[in-house]
Design brief:
This protein is an alpha/beta fold and about 425 residues long. Helix content is about 50%, strand content about 5%.
Length: about 425
């Protein structure tokens, strides 16, 4: 079922349609070195083979999982001989290129720079983190999208109608949701699961004398021995579960947080989505009660970009438990809400003259900056001064929360401002 032309491709229309960059590269008979970045089963290998076929270039394939510098050199020796008989540089396709070490990637630079080979690398990881800068700068990066549910359903029907073996069988595709959800946007996994389910149906049919091969969600669950989790990424349950996750952390329950995190992981939720929500929560619900929470959440977001599955689940769990166990405060969240409300109500209040920079003589004549007290000129780098517009002076937006850390902040502010702001 692997496509041999752009017109047979399922998905990636932004690349292979008549307006797509790959279609136009073929049309102009030119090909730069490329990094295809996308999830498993999105068509990276297929696109590489189609490009080689359409542009009539020989293609050499390596997998970074089991290849090394020696294998790369052997390919270069072969390509140098090929180049004697062809004006077109051959393609070197490297699957899982992010698994190559720095030295292995370095060994590609010379030939790619000379143009004696066209490199096409395939990766499921962010190439900004996984591909060395000198190599990345010599390649165009094209992002492949997960195959959509509608496209996966088209692929299922195409397989049943066109595959030489499957079209000989009496297959009725009555329900597709379980097959599609279990595939996780991976076309290869979808076809593998279809094959397993058909084998299951044939075995079950042989046992009870039935020749019927009717595919339903229940049959798929039985055949794959997986229970379908109710989690539609575009529907209500998606929002229900992320809501339960956030509220468990806000409620300081690490057990609830880990359970709902597991639900999302098992349903195939993107790790970046979960990590981003924890970054928001770290400021909204923890804030200055534990400022380290934001650093932990940001580190989690950065790590899941670099690490990928399945290890990212461990990092997500660590962050979720840490945030759930942290003291809570929404004081900074409430502060910006209240300040924005005052801005909406009062409009563009003028900046007090003493807070303005006098960058011209005219501004000095107008008393810009006059009377400003430079904090570092005073003891403890502080002196009482008004920093708000006259119309709202002494207004309090930030009120420290009732927790150990902010209690210390509150006492410090009271000592400094001596009643100018009422922090009682």
């Amino acid at each position: 079922m692997r496509p041999t032309t752009f017109s047979e491709m399922i998905g990636q229309n932004h690349l292979v349609s008549e307006k797509g960059i790959l279609f136009n590269l073929v049309k102009s008979d030119r090909l730069p070195s490329i990094i295809f970045w996308g999830p498993p089963g999105s068509g990276k290998t297929s696109l590489s083979q189609i490009l080689a076929r359409e542009l009539k270039r020989s293609i050499y394939t390596l997998s970074a999982i089991n290849s090394g510098v020696k294998d790369i050199r052997e390919v270069f020796e072969k390509t140098s001989k090929t180049n004697l008989f062809s004006e077109k540089a051959p393609i070197l396709f490297i699957d899982e290129i992010h698994r190559f070490s720095k030295s292995q990637q370095d060994s590609l630079l010379s030939e790619v720079e000379k143009g004696s080979v066209i490199l096409i690398g395939a990766t499921t990881e962010n190439p900004s983190f996984e591909v060395i800068s000198p190599l990345l700068s010599r390649c165009q990066v094209y992002l492949l999208k997960p195959i959509s549910s509608n496209e996966l359903e088209d692929l299922l029907r195409r397989a049943i109608e066109r595959d030489p073996v499957l079209k000989q069988k009496n297959i009725e595709l009555r329900q597709t949701r379980a097959l599609i959800e279990f595939s996780g946007g991976d076309a290869r996994k979808l076809l593998n699961n279809l094959e397993i389910v058909i084998g299951y149906l044939e075995t079950a049919g042989a046992a009870n004398g039935s020749q019927s091969l009717v595919i339903t969600d229940e049959v798929v669950e039985a055949g794959l021995q997986q229970k379908q989790l109710r989690y539609d990424k575009d529907g209500e349950e998606h929002y229900n579960i992320i809501s339960a996750f956030i509220k468990s952390i806000r409620g300081s329950d690490p057990n609830g947080a880990v359970y709902w995190l597991a639900r999302m992981i098992e349903a195939g939720e993107k790790p970046e989505f979960m990590a981003r929500r924890m970054v928001i929560l770290a400021s909204e619900d923890i804030g200055l009660a534990n400022p380290n929470a934001l650093m932990i959440a940001m580190s989690c977001l950065d790590a899941v970009h670099k690490i990928g599955w399945p290890e990212s689940r461990i990092i997500l769990s660590q962050a979720a438990v840490y945030l759930a166990a942290s003291p809570k405060s929404n004081s900074t969240y409430m502060a910006i809400n209240q300040a924005q409300q005052v801005v909406r109500e009062t409009g563009n209040l003028p900046v007090p003259l003493h807070l303005r920079n006098a960058v011209t003589g005219l501004m000095k004549d107008l008393q810009y900056g006059k009377g400003y007290k430079y904090a570092h000129d005073f003891e403890n780098s502080f002196t009482i001064e008004e920093f708000l517009p006259e119309e709202i002076k002494s207004s309090i937006f930030y009120r420290p929360g009732n927790n150990l850390r902010e209690s210390e902040v509150k006492q410090r502010l009271k000592n400094l401002w001596q009643g100018h702001y009422n922090y009682e």
